[in-house]
Amino acid sequence: MTDILEQLAERQSAGPLNQLGAQDRGEDRALERFLKFNPSKFTGEPNLEVAENWLERMTNIFSALDYIENREFNEKFLPPLIQEKREDEFIKLRQGTLSVAEYEGKFTKLSKYAPELVTNEQKRIRRFVQELNVEIQEGLAVVQISTFTEAFEKSQRVESTRMQVRDFHYKKGVFLVILLVRLVKVPPLPRWEEEWEE
User: Fold this and answer.
1) C-alpha dihedral over 114, 116, 121, 123, to 10 degrees?
2) Most buried of 9, 77, 172, 174 (most Cβ within 10 A)?
3) What is the number of alpha carbons within 13 Å of residue 143 lying toward its C-beta?
């Protein structure tokens, strides 16, 4: 990623666009598109959080521009121990008590540390779906999914539907209890203090 930025910066300082060849003009357009995102400069700080936030911002920009070279950045700026820790977190990542949106956020962030596990769209989809809660996996079993975005959106729909059903059953159960109490007219419980006094 750093090499791409350096090459683009060198091209920009080479001179006006009309003096450059077709390839150079294309690279200058890429630089112009990149600069429209107003990217921040990474100063090489040892603070891991600063580095990760900068990387995430750059990744978003480069994804929009169809450039991805995260592995090079990770190897250069993140200590191997941190890289291995994040890779292990990705390998062990399960939805558990997370919402689908929270799980997707962690999945996307941590997958950058284990790109060999999600080398293409199908592997990324399969890994994402396999670690969803079983109830959501069941809802996706009959659905055709061809992109990661589809997997995420359909998982959210299944989750939303399941929550609506659960809320309906809960409200129905509360209503039935109230109805039964009114119908049966359960006598009030005796006060313990009165029994102890006798």
Assistant:
1) -100
2) 77
3) 18
3-class state of residue 161 by DSSP = helix
The dihedral through the CA atoms of 93, 94, 95, 97 has a sign that is negative
DSSP state of 188: P
How far is residue 70's CA from residue 62's CA, in Å, rounded to a whole number?
10
Token pair for 141: 């079993």
pLDDT tens, residue order, the chain (198 aa): 555 555 545 544 554 444 444 445 555 676 777 788 888 887 777 777 787 788 777 777 766 665 555 566 666 666 788 888 889 999 999 999 999 999 999 999 899 888 899 999 999 999 999 999 999 999 998 889 999 999 999 999 999 999 998 888 788 877 777 777 667 665 666 666 555 555
Q: Is 131 exposed, middle or buried (0-12, 13-18, 19+ CB in 10 A)?
A: middle
In 3D, which of 23, 112, 128 has the Cα closest to residue 68? 112
